[in-house]
Amino acid sequence: MWQTLPGFGDTADDGQLAWQADALCAQTDPEAFFPEKGGSTRDAKKVCGACPVKQQCLEYALSNDERFGIWGGMSERERRRLRKKSS
C-alpha cells in the first residue's frame, strides 16, 4: 500500500519533487520516520540506507529547513550539525 509523508506529492512542486516517487519511505510506515522524542531512528535509517533517492531527500530537507523526522538518512540533530559544518 502506497503511503506518503507530509509534504510528499504537493502539486505545486511536482517537478522539483519527482524524486519522491522513488523514495522507499513512501512505501513504509511513515511513523518510523517521525519517532517520538528519544525514540529509535534505526528502522528509518535502515530504509534510507537502501533508498535510491537518499541524497535528493537530504538536499530537500536541508534546503527546506525540515526540523522534524528522518530525511536522507539523517535526524534533525544530525542535519543541524551538518548545516553548522557547512557554514
From TrEMBL:
Predominant location category: cytoplasm
InterPro entries listed in its UniProt record: 4FE4S_WBL (IPR034768), Whib (IPR003482)
Recorded GO MF terms: 4 iron, 4 sulfur cluster binding; dinitrosyl-iron complex binding; DNA binding; metal ion binding; protein-disulfide reductase [NAD(P)H] activity
GO biological process, one term: cell redox homeostasis
A matching Pfam family: Whib
Sequence positions that bind [4Fe-4S] cluster: C25, C48, C51, C57
Localization terms from the record: Cytoplasm
Cofactor note: Binds 1 [4Fe-4S] cluster per subunit. Following nitrosylation of the [4Fe-4S] cluster binds 1 [4Fe-8(NO)] cluster per subunit.
Record-stated family: Belongs to the WhiB family.
Cited function: Acts as a transcriptional regulator. Probably redox-responsive. The apo- but not holo-form probably binds DNA.
Protein name: Transcriptional regulator WhiB
Gene name per UniProt: whiB
